[in-house]
Fold these 4 entries.
Entry 1:
Amino acid sequence: MDSNLVLLTLDLGIPKLWENTLVQKFPETSFVIRGGSFSGAKSFSGLLQIHEGEFNEIQKFLNKNFSNIMLNDFHSDSNLFFCLDNNSKLVKPLSQTRCIMNWPVTLQKDFKRIKLILNEDEVENILSNLENCRIDILNFSKVKVDFSFNEILTPKQKEILLPSIKYGYYEFPKKINLNCLAQKLNISPSTLCVHLQKIENRILNLNYHDLFFGV
């Protein structure tokens, strides 16, 4: 059993964080990051879901006050938007630890919340890395995640997951992108994307819906 894995939820204090300012400016709007990843030395890209908000006003506010943040339509007539942060303060501390980010996460007005799945032995390292980057740890919780990949994944899914981990697809920043990984596995990027989504859903949903997907 993979009993040394834990779900680590961290509430962080990051000065002048755009997420906090955005929620304070639009208190009636809900902002939820549905997924994303770090790339390069400072960048984070992901999907931001906006409920009960006027996108044009939100985009205008971000353009005026946070030039490092870009929002674009992800799908027409949808409340999902592609979000790019070109100056994320979390890239450096998280890139030094082997972990997988867990979603969704709701934006807060007073702190930054992140959820990570990692080996329990890495917890102290990541806390130290955050403090070394002058990021305040306001609160954190650690819950054991007890499951076996052998029990929940099909043979085909294990064939996809193991090389994905080996080649660094789940590291921060990614050591390989989706297209290159698909070439190594000799499948199309679209097929690989579907496989990875199913794998992630099985791992993160099975018996842990409230734990993982509570925001």
Note: The chain has two domains: 5-145, 149-213.
Entry 2:
Amino acid sequence: MERRLRWATEEGNGLEYVAIRGTPQGVVAEGVVIGPDSGTPYEGRLFGCSYAIHCDAHWRVRQVQVRLAGGAHLLLRADGEGRWSGPDGAPLPALDGCIDVDLTCTPFTNTLPIRRLGEALRERREVRVAYVTLPGAAVMPSRQAYSLLGEGRYRFESLSDPFRADIETDADGLVVHYPGLFQRLD
């Protein structure tokens, strides 16, 4: 898979560019985000960041790196079975059971459980993710659910709060429209 995509936030003038490529180990996505100048998820704070997400051939996250312009740097590693560690190799037991990552600034991370679970999403599936808030770069476990509504349409549910969205994707499971948050530009 080789893709290059752009998204815009639906409020606040935020933009993203991501390059996705296949590797012998799986998939790597490298993105650059210019955070929006308004919007609840970002607390109205301006920010910019780059990220790299490395997945194995089954779309299980193996490494996440986020660099905030002029700020924090985050590095997480995962074994693909739900065990995570920090940059020094120390275990992060709070993230036990998390297979996917969810970065608040990008719709790309919705692709991870969609691709990993595939046909299993014909039934609603709950997932546990390492949830990374930006611009703060805090990491916490989060429970979410995904289900297939029809071709290229998935329901996303946060099980931590009442948020829910029906996401449109292309044939590769990459977000085309995330109502209220993101719209693909290409």
Note: Residues 2-185 form one domain.
Entry 3:
Amino acid sequence: MPWRETSVMDERLRFVARLLEGEGMSEVCRDFGISRKTGYKIFNRYKED
């Protein structure tokens, strides 16, 4: 079975969606393999738009 390819934007939207559903920043960042600093940067950019 081939790997499913996703774009960076799709991953960021999935990340933000989980935060908006009420999951904690630390948990979501851990699942995505990114630092909390990066997580907050992605989330703040989303809120600005």
Note: The radius of gyration is 11 Å.
Entry 4:
Amino acid sequence: MLGLSIRQIEVFVAVATAGGVRQAADRLHLTQPAVSMALGELERQLGAPLFDRERGRLRLNAQGAEQLPLAREILERLGDMQRRHPDACGTLEGELRIGASNTVGNYLVGELLGPIAARHPLVALRLTVDNTRDITRLLLDHAVDIACVEGPVHHAQLETLPWRNDALVVCAAPAHPLARRARLQPRDFADARWILRERGSATRSLTEQAMSALPPGRILLELGQIEAIKQAVIAGLGIACLPYAATLDAVATGRLRVLRTPFLRLDRRLSIVLHRSRYRGALIEAFLQSLEVKPHAQD
């Protein structure tokens, strides 16, 4: 039987998370030799290295990537056991790694993180912002614990829970010909110059669906950030579909005009996404409760 210790598992998770022995030692308030010794002993007992060592740097290898979710689960379950002790104060602590798509991470971060930060101030929140495709990949790789994205996510290993509704709006500069029309028809968009998000973005997918219902236009630019697209539209380079929340400041100051397009379907749902095989301990449950999201019953 393996003689693994909780300290060894803590060291492994800390090194994998922090990216090195020195950083892990600082996080755990240990000396670097103590961290190196604990990690080496864990690898010896498991019979395989968990990291590739290149020029003094540690990089998680395939064996380490496979073991890391299990190690995190052990620590989370231990924390849950300790909180159930009669003498425990019940205060929730720990780290929650959250992935968010660009719309959520840049414009709805207060609504996403505010409730849990207020209820559980000792929980450290780590937010990663990227497009929906890349956030989904991080969740599948167990690089984040939970995700919030726009648009549908279809994967057998992932569970999607509805959070709130959202919408895109078609925008133009106030001087743009389309912004000057009192009432728009689909034919008015013929030959329009569009500015789009990069492929892999849920905003891009919904924009392309909207464009398919309009006469052919031209894709002038593809940009990776919503703010960059907004500035390009304000400059008069073209029109774009933007998240409603991203337009509020520019519309209020008269730099941007929202076009009325009742003939386009631009509504969408923001969703919380979880890995089906990941242990859902107190941290994840607290996060879901803070957003008033009810998970499906697990088998």
Note: The radius of gyration is 24 Å.
